[in-house]
Design brief:
The chain is mostly helical. Helices cover 72% and strands 2% of the residues.
Length: 465
């Protein structure tokens, strides 16, 4: 056997057992994108940013996110693999564009995981006040890794329990808002206002509304988490596309509906919008402190659930990258390690805990900067669908309706992400500059390695060849 054949053999080791149904993949995906996190954490952010414009932000943003989910659906249905969407990008656009995409996703991956753990820290410390913030975040990562290292169906069952609690929290918010619905508040949705000073309101500017829509789309995104479980799923080519598309629509509804209903039920608009946590403030006023505290427990469960599901998904992408030889040899060997008993990618989980744990010390603001503004995803997805359809390499496993409108939306949204980032002088410009620099540097390194004969990585992202 030649060295190349030995490497190919190593890359094929560690395939996952196909034990998941479409319903189980759906539950894992909803848990990873976490509607409660988007509503109770992301909703607070957008309410502070755009006031009652958060309603349009989540409605329009959710529609964009559900539309973009169709791009993931078509590509992953034709090229399913633990690498998520990058097997499709590599097959259609080639490694020179896929490699920087993969590197940029990896750079974002660890801070994203750390952001969830850091965000859960204050909630955990409400019930365990003796824990330091760092210990709470690190403890959550270790706990999530232990659950993620179990057999995937057992992990999915644990996640399902947390998800019931999460959906209950959303139901309480939506139900309370329906009970206190105020027809007069419809004007606050159609003509958004925001806090302009001490208990005073002003019209939300169009630029701010644009930022709210982009942020709403990012909060409602996440249907692509399903794609990382392609090698765990029965008949992935036939089933993955519908699962991703359906999840994108459900997530948009679960996130937009409670937020819009809450805005339609506010009784003291300046006080609610100006509160540190508008969602919690509304619940306390409408249901009382006891129910509000119980919902806070649901938020904790949702964040923990999200971290577990994200870790399960990310570990599979890292494992696929190790199989493909994306990193240096020692790291690739670690990432290829799979527990023979549970079939979990334990090597990747170890790396996630170590690097993700280090990222928790960066602080919340720095983590937000590092995880926002991935412009390359929608851009390359849109181009891949357009190029794949033209070349005839995308089959009938799942086809996007309203083609080519949907790929065009992806291209426009990638431009919007950059524009929204550049408009934010406080943090957005640095984030966009950093992420663009990472993408360009990875592209140039790949081209240099190819032209100098130092080799290129084999980006299959899948064992489905």
């Amino acid at each position: 056997m030649t060295p190349g054949e030995q490497e190919a053999s190593l890359q094929k080791q560690g395939s996952f057992a196909r034990v998941l149904s479409p319903g189980e993949v759906f539950l894992l995906t909803i848990s990873a994108l976490s509607p409660v996190f988007s509503v109770f954490i992301g909703g607070n952010v957008i309410l502070h940013l755009a006031g009652t414009g958060a309603a349009i932000g989540f409605i329009a943003g959710g529609l964009i996110a559900a539309t973009l989910a169709l791009l993931f659906a078509e590509l992953s249905a034709n090229y399913p693999g633990a690498g998520g969407v990058y097997p499709a990008l590599n097959a259609i656009l080639g490694p020179r564009w896929t490699y920087p995409f993969v590197i940029l996703r990896t750079v974002i991956m660890f801070p994203l995981l750390a952001f969830g753990a850091v965000g859960a820290g204050p909630y955990i410390r409400l019930f365990l006040p003796w824990l330091s913030p760092d210990a709470a975040a690190l403890g959550l990562l270790v706990f999530a890794a232990l659950i993620a290292s179990s057999q995937i169906r057992r992990g999915a069952q644990v996640i399902a329990i947390f998800l019931v609690i999460e959906m209950t929290a959303l139901a309480v918010l939506a139900g309370s808002a329906l009970i206190h619905f105020k027809a007069g508040n419809i004007g606050l949705v159609l003509n958004p206002v925001m806090v302009a000073g001490h208990e005073s309101l002003a019209a939300t500017p169009p630029v701010t509304m644009a930022l709210a829509v982009v942020t709403g789309a990012l909060m409602a995104a996440g249907a692509d988490w399903a794609t990382f479980f392609a090698e765990d799923m029965h008949d992935a080519k036939r089933r993955m596309g519908p699962v991703v598309a359906f999840t994108g629509l459900v997530a948009a509804l679960l996130i937009a509906v409670p937020t819009v209903l809450m805005i339609l039920a506010m009784d003291d608009v300046p006080a609610t919008l100006g509160a540190e946590a508008p969602m919690a403030h509304f619940l306390e006023r409408s249901t009382g402190p006891v129910v509000s505290a119980l919902v806070s427990l649901g938020v904790i469960a949702a964040i923990i659930n999200s971290v577990i599901a994200i870790m399960m998904a990310m570990s599979r992408q890292l494992h696929a990258m190790g199989r493909d030889g994306v990193f240096i040899a020692p790291v690739n060997r670690l990432l290829r390690v799979i527990n023979p008993r549970t079939n979990a990618p334990t090597g990747a989980l170890i790396l996630l805990v170590l690097v993700g744990g280090l990222c928790t010390f960066l602080g919340e603001r720095q983590l937000v900067i590092l995880t926002s503004g991935n412009f390359s995803e929608c851009l390359l997805l849109g181009l891949a669908v357009l190029a794949g359809r033209q070349a005839g390499v995308l089959s009938d496993h799942f086809r996007i309706p309203l083609y080519p409108v949907v790929p065009a939306v992806g291209l426009l949204f990638s431009v919007s992400i950059i524009a929204a980032g550049l408009a934010d002088a406080e943090a957005g410009r640095f984030s966009v500059s950093l992420l663009v620099s990472v993408f360009v540097a990875a592209f140039l390194w790949h081209e240099w390695a190819r032209r100098t004969g130092r080799g290129t990585v084999r980006l299959t992202g899948s064992d489905l060849e």
